[in-house]
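[audit] Reproducing an earlier prediction to check determinism. Same input, same settings, fresh worker. If the tokens differ from the archived copy the diff job will pick it up downstream; this log only records the rerun itself.
[audit] input (269 residues):
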Amino acid sequence: MKKFVIPLLVCLLVLSGCSEFSDQQEAPESSSQETTEAGYDNNPTLSNALDITPTVISFERTASYRKDENGNILAEMYFDKPVLAGNSVVICKINTIFDIECQGFFYGSEESKFFKTGHYDYFFESVRSVRERYGDAAVAQQPLECTNDAEIVYQSNELICFKLSGYWMAGGVSDHSYYGYAFNLTTGELLQISSLIDVSINIFNKNVTDMLCNNYAQYDIPFLRSDIENTYKAYRLDDYNYYYDGSDIYLIFSQDQYYNDSYILKYTG
């Protein structure tokens, strides 16, 4: 595996601020945000990687709620959006990408990497249905959720990686989802997995098939290897959803015919 990044530096512990969408889809109102600072080497290898040292990163929460007449929360929908402090071209590009992802999460966006179709209307229609069926008192005991929490999984002078963890609970079976983002801090560009690994697609797809077969076997899940091969044989390398933690690549898989939830496997090959 070819290494794009330099050795691991200090990662961040970032707390969230909060902004809120109203039912009328007004622009979110930003409140104060708690942040922590991440230090860089005194002699960074990329002088234009970030314009400020140390770098300040926060998570801004954009949220919408449904409450009963007593103010009890019945449903919560939120997106934790990473925000890098500063106004350099690189920082603005990264922040703009997460602005689009946040908008896509709620209302859908063709520019979004993962959220072409939004969740807002479907989620709150599900909330309305559950409230009608069970009543607000019952729903308040276990509020419904459509959320995305964000975290930094790796940071160096050249690269910063985030993982978003989604959760859906709207009266039926709960679902988890995961999304990876890796940014080149020289250009602000989103990096595809091919920037971090040097392998042919045929070998990579075979390795993925082996990983999945081993995973299903470990949990005694019946499977056919041919089904898995057929699923991934048309994949290009950059079709894979992933995140990088400074030493390993983790592949993110959506629910499939054998497993009814999203899951993450460390790439081995």
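[audit] rerun output stored. Observation attached for the diff report: Strands lie at 16-20, 36-38, 55-67, 73-84, 144-155, 159-169, 175-184, 241-244, 249-253, 263-266.
[audit] end
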